[in-house]
């Protein structure tokens, strides 16, 4: 077991909110002086949403259960990870897809070979393993979890709740520095939009056990431009900065159209990044848009997306493949294929 996951490890420094997260707030939160192998890598270009960051920090500082809700691509999971990274707090993510069972979460008996003999041995699941250590456990896609799995989680939503392992007749108290977070695309009432197939209604008694429910939305235009630029730096070069702003405005038009019920697919910041990367590959902004986004849209809605595109770029997407391989040149990559 690594030192950062020792059950006896505890925060040993106080981290300034203003210095670590760029938020104009007096105060500090506990953290670890040294990063371990389970601490996420710091993304120096990450932009913190102040309200969401304060909610997450409250979870770390006060041992509160925090649920982040928002549409895809808003950066819910990465927000928690980047807060943990700056606190040097070990962080483990678990995607609650329909294949995660109660046994996966709690543990099970397994046949192992010991001293040349087969013996039955209990293998601890992820939940009790994390519960006994100073770990921030992030339950991704919380609204997609199976009902039997969700009821296992319900008990640990209480800060002082003990985890009962019936198969072992054990009652496990929580580590004082165990923290629990979750992310969800819906608010637990089911998916009425059709965007998030596989999600389901959540037990309201369980939702009531979350201390903090924060909503994370898409960034303002200038902030989103900075995020995309941090991931695709060459878009900040002369002649492309204005184009990137147009790309972000196009994405915002899809979000406005979705909110009005006109279209059913929205462009997330992740899609804009893919668009920029495809432009780097093909050298054609229209073809990059089609391959990053338009080709996965409903045929009946494509004219609306074409109208949005025309508002921003003054033309509809060409619908044609590039006439030549015109990979955009990036300094230091003159020998890249296709140049």
From TrEMBL:
The keyword ATP-binding applies. One of its GO terms (cellular component) is preribosome, large subunit precursor. GO terms for molecular function: ATP binding; ATP hydrolysis activity. Coiled coil: none annotated. It comes from the Bacteria. Keywords: ATP-binding, Nucleotide-binding. It holds the Pfam family CobS_N. The keyword ATP-binding applies. Residues 66-191 form the ATPase dynein-related AAA domain. One of its GO terms (biological process) is ribosomal large subunit assembly. Residues 7-39 form the Cobaltochelatase subunit CobS N-terminal domain. This is Cobaltochelatase CobS subunit. It comes from Devosia enhydra. The lineage of its organism: Bacteria, Pseudomonadati, Pseudomonadota, Alphaproteobacteria, Hyphomicrobiales.
């Amino acid at each position: 077991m690594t030192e950062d996951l020792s059950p006896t490890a505890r925060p040993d420094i106080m981290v300034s909110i203003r210095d670590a997260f760029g938020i104009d707030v007096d105060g500090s939160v506990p953290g670890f002086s040294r990063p371990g192998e389970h601490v996420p890598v710091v993304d120096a270009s990450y932009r913190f949403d102040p309200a969401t960051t304060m909610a997450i920090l409250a979870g770390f500082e006060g041992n509160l259960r925090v649920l982040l809700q928002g549409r895809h691509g808003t950066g819910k999971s990465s927000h928690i990870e980047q807060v943990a990274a700056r606190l040097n707090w070990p962080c483990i993510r678990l995607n609650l897809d329909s294949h995660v069972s109660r046994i996966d979460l709690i543990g099970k008996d397994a046949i192992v070979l010991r001293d040349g003999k087969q013996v039955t041995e209990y293998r601890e699941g992820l939940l009790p393993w994390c519960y006994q250590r100073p770990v921030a456990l992030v339950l991704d896609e919380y609204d997609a979890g199976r009902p039997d799995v969700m009821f296992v989680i319900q008990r640990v939503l209480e800060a002082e709740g003990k985890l009962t392992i019936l198969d072992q007749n054990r009652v496990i108290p929580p580590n004082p520095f165990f923290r629990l977070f979750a992310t969800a695309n819906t608010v637990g009432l089911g998916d009425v939009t059709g965007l998030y197939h596989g999600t389901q209604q959540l037990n309201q008694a369980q939702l009531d056990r979350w201390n903090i429910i924060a909503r994370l939305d898409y960034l303002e235009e200038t902030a989103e431009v900075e995020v995309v630029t941090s991931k695709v730096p060459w878009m900040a070069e002369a002649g492309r900065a204005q184009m990137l702003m147009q790309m972000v405005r196009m994405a915002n038009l899809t979000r406005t159209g979705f909110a009005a019920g006109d279209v059913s697919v929205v462009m997330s910041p992740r899609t804009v990044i893919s668009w920029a990367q495809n432009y780097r590959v093909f050298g054609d902004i229209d073809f990059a848009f089609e391959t990053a986004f338009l080709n996965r849209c409903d045929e009946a809605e494509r004219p609306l997306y074409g109208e949005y595109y025309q508002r921003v770029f003054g033309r509809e997407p060409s619908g044609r493949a590039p006439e030549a391989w015109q990979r955009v040149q990036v300094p230091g990559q003159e020998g890249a294929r296709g140049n």
